[in-house]
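Hi W., the iron/sulfur cluster complex you wanted:
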Amino acid sequence: MASGYRSGVPDDWYVDPVRLGIPGIRPAIVDEDNPLAWQTDALCAQTDPEAFFPEKGGSTRDAKKICTSCEVRSECLEYALANDERFGIWGGLSERERRKLRRRAV
Ligand code: SF4
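Structure:
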């Protein structure tokens, strides 16, 4: 990977059903300090995470479509911007779209 481009789902991107609960089945262990607590309601956690971290040039359409119905879209986007997440779809925006948004905010 000469370009430094990373593909695939990162190791720290997941919803642990024990800690974060399963919607309608297991309540979350509420941990106010967990910066990823909003993932309890993440729609992508119920789908294929690979769609949110496509290979370079891969389609992001399906992932973005899921994000439009996600209740924690703004929390997700805020988290990605605050943590400078470089890869994947977060809050319905691609890496490039988040970069643009960040530039506009400056
Ligand atoms: S906005 Fe999209 S990426 Fe973020 S939690 Fe929801 S479905 Fe997942």
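The mean pLDDT is 82.

W.
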